[in-house]
Each structure stands twice: as structure tokens, then as C-alpha cells.
TrEMBL record:
Its cofactor is Fe(2+). It comes from uncultured spirochete. It holds the Pfam family Pep_deformylase. HAMAP family: Pep_deformylase. This is Peptide deformylase. Keywords: Hydrolase, Iron, Metal-binding, Protein biosynthesis.
Length: 162
């Protein structure tokens, strides 16, 4: 089972590498990420969170099939935004409200390298944007005001020391 990389590890703030080989290793990585996500009760997980600098994330909402996004690009975002309380497997126990566009269009490759496009709204759009950010080394604490970020990190470090 893959371990989840926690906040503080440099890989979480680095830009991940484009995927060029669609082989058995990639399938295994995606499958192992899915298992780790479910084990930790997550609904999304990006490769940097398991220590792999690759542009790949998985999404597993309840009652939906596993979705895999490789070398994704968000090609459109709604002007309308929404608020939602987010968590992140790399920040266990930390939750706070993040404002993001309500809907996005994303283009990506599937596990065999075949392109697809998806229009998402609601929770799916939310998770896609959170995981997509991970591939660029952007964390959910980077999506709030500096004051809120400081409070969140102070709260998180207190929690870790408990
Ligand atoms: Zn996350």
C-alpha cells in the first residue's frame, strides 16, 4: 500500500512531470493510488501525494466509477463560483472553505493514452480542481487569503503536535 505524502514534503509544492509512457507501471500506479485513496476515505488523490512526480490524478466519488485523469488541462471554467469545505489527504484533519469556479471543462488522457473531454460541476468539478492544483504544486491553503492560510497552518501544526 502506498503511503500518503504529508504537507512539508517538497514534492507537494513542485510541478509534476508530463506522462509519456502508458504501460503496466502506470496502470499499477493508478490502481495503487485508488486503493490508498479508498483506504484513507478520500474522494481524490494526485500522484505527487504518493511521492510520484507525474501528471496523474484519480477521483472516486461515492457510487461512481473511478475516474483517472492523465496530463489533464482545464480548458474552461465558469464565472460562477461556489464555496465548499475541502479537506486534503496530505493535511489530515484540516478542513476549511475554499471558493472555486462551480463548473469546469477538462481535457485529459485515459489510462491507455486516449484523449477525452469532460464537463463537470458540483462535487466532481470541485475535486477535479483540487487535484489538478496538486499537479502544479498548488495546495488548498494557497487558494485562501494569507490570513486564513496562516490560521489554517497554525491550527494544523497544533493538531500534529497533539
Ligand atoms: Zn489534496
Amino acid at each position: 500500500m502506498l503511503d500518503i505524502v504529508l504537507y512539508g514534503e517538497p514534492i507537494l509544492i513542485q510541478k509534476a512531470q508530463e506522462i509519456k509512457e502508458f504501460d503496466h507501471d502506470l496502470e499499477k500506479l493508478a490502481g495503487d493510488m485508488h486503493d490508498a485513496m479508498k483506504r484513507d476515505h478520500g474522494i481524490g488523490l494526485a500522484a505527487p501525494q504518493v511521492g510520484a512526480s507525474k501528471r496523474l490524478f484519480v477521483v472516486g466519488l461515492d457510487n461512481e466509477p473511478l475516474r483517472i485523469f492523465i496530463n489533464p488541462r482545464i480548458v474552461a471554467m465558469s464565472e460562477k463560483t461556489s464555496e465548499y469545505e475541502e479537506g486534503c489527504l496530505s493535511f489530515p484533519g484540516l478542513y476549511f472553505t475554499v471558493v472555486r469556479p462551480s463548473a469546469v471543462d477538462i481535457e485529459a488522457l485515459d489510462i491507455r493514452g486516449k484523449p477525452f473531454r469532460l464537463s463537470a460541476d458540483g462535487l466532481l468539478a470541485r475535486v477535479i480542481q483540487h487535484e489538478y492544483d496538486h499537479l502544479d504544486g498548488i495546495l488548498f491553503i494557497d487558494r485562501v487569503s494569507p490570513a486564513k492560510r496562516r490560521r489554517a497552518l497554525a491550527h494544523y501544526s497544533r493538531m500534529l503536535n497533539m
